[in-house]
Prior knowledge:
Among the domains are: 3-208, Alpha Horseshoe (Leucine-rich Repeat Variant), CATH 1.25.10; 507-652, Cyclophilin-like (Cyclophilin, Beta Barrel), CATH 2.40.100.10. It is 54% helix and 6% strand. It has helices at residues 3-25, 37-47, 51-55, 63-76, 82-88, 94-107, 113-122, 126-145, 150-161, 168-183, 190-198, 204-215, 225-236, 241-253, 257-268, 274-286, 304-314, 321-330, 336-348, 355-362, 368-377, 385-394, 398-411, 423-431, 436-448, 453-469, 476-489, 507-512, 538-549, 636-641; strands at 518-523, 526-532, 558-562, 566-569, 597-600, 612-615, 628-634, 648-652. The chain has an eight-stranded antiparallel sheet. Helix 4 runs parallel beside helix 6 (94-107), helix 6 runs parallel beside helix 8 and helix 8 (126-145) runs antiparallel to helix 9.
Amino acid sequence: MTRRFHAAGLCIGFFICIACILTQCNKPTSYNKFLDPELVKLADFADHRTTDSVLTYLTHRQPLLRVEAAYALASVRDPKAVDALHKVLLDPVAEVRTAAAYALGQLLHPSSIEPLSKQLLIESNAAAVISICEALGKIAGGLHASSTAPEWVENSANALFNFERSDSIGVHAVAKAAFWLHNAGWDDTRFMNKLSALFPSQPLINRRMIAFAMGRYRGEWFTDTLQCNRFLQALEVESDTLTRTASMAVAGKCGSNQATRYIRACLLSSQPSLEWTLASCRAAGKHTGIKAASILPLLSDNRKAVAEEACIALQFKKLTADEVNDLSLRMSSFPVTVQAACARLLHQNGATLNVESWLGKIDGNLSVYDKLSCIRALGVTGKCADVCLERALHVPNILEANAYTEAFIESHNKVDFPAGVSYAESLRNLILRSDIGITALCAAELRNDSISTSEKQLLNTTMLEALERCALPKEVETANEIIKTLNAWGITPREEIKVSFNHSIDWELVKSIPRRQHAIIETSQGTIEIELHVEDAPGSVASFVSLCRSGFFDGKSFHRVVPNFVIQGGCPRGDGMGGTDYTLRSEFRLHDYISGAVGLASSGPDTESCQWFITHIPTPHLEGRYTIFAHVVQGMDVVDKIGVGDSILRITLP
């Protein structure tokens, strides 16, 4: 196949693709692309994971269907598709090449490194260049993380580092690739040197991507004081909040005095954003040059997320006797969750936990999630092991029982754990309570704890019985936790469960959902408005819409909040272990996890259900791992206010 043919095909393909796009754009917003029966057919093949049927569309005469087929294969992730996708890298239409590269980045097959590297040398389309580089970074990162094919990893890194395109597109592409390499633990300093030198001269979108890529690095570059200080100097004049937020991960790892001064100055800044304050606090916790005195004032911040993050940072610091006394006097004025975190800090610094006082607080008039924070605080001492075990076995509230189980497990490693308590027998009794959350916790603990051969034999039978009780596909997460432990013991090894197809997409419902359908999430903190991506994630959106219309989410809680990361809700149990009786197929598309991205939680490929999360800030490490089915269009200030235990009052579809 000659380059002349490519050029002619490119012209023809370009006009065909433009026609297709215009056709889609000219449709009223009340329609979506699935009015086309051929697209429904293709998407249904992908949903059923029938790879051979999807592959036939890669050579379809319509560019739009070739694009859709490539993206479908990114979700199917069947190695059988690799060779066909390699050929599509030469497609005359840039959008098809872009989608093919994205799909190869999802498949993580080492054989893709060579064709992607060759295509990179001749690719002229900006989107395709970025997609190819990111695919190379993902594949090389995946291989490096699994310690396989090191020569391919080196080849990929060399191809990326030697990529000669130096305009903003080229820099952005290499930064994205470096992100995935660094995220996997690649410690070559070449990308760090290159990116830090390029950072000051780049447009905003590139500075952000460089900051994320450098922040994921964990190697020796941070010991180079000169290089670190040059980068910190550029940060001091950086005006973009998100770039500074992402860059704080770099500052936290730099060991120089300049890094100490920079982080301290950020902590003392008079009017910093929430994102920047949280990132500064996190960096302060990791930086050895920052003492507890610089962080302690943040415990009084009226933003609870900041106070809670300060508690986490202080876990890495040693408090003076005066600081311990002062904190002991002040902690009663803090929110309950901060009090619980302070109790951990004080115990860590030699203070004695007043067990009776905390049990009284737990048995008092607290909200459920405040009570859970207090219960978990009991795990700092072995003195509470007996009461934690007793309550874990018998309290009727399953969320409390799970929290007591966590506290009991944590208490086991403490020097004052009761000598007369058989830990293995206790975990066995907890498993016999037959709760999926408690069973999952105990299974994971048994995998990590040293127990005798005879205890394993006894527990093996209990674990097998617990496995039989798991209702699939709903409880696949617990089932696989059990199987991982059985496999670690080697007595009765099993293959981990891969959820089979169990829920058909309601295509009539999909066709009725407008392309830009909004959903209004009313919470106890205010209203969040999101726009659903039905054309990119039809199965996920259809399920979400159906659950909304049935009132499924009404009254549910946000059970998980990680500041500067995500808020998560929709769990029918309220602890992250609940789901619907069906699971959904993962649906991946070329989307970015920017601030306000709405994704579906999962415990592995094709295990999505009813739990969803919203990101506070860009989280590129989630891309290609969790389905994005919507984005926030209004109410990010509300997202930032949400804390654990806040309610989803209702979700409506205007």
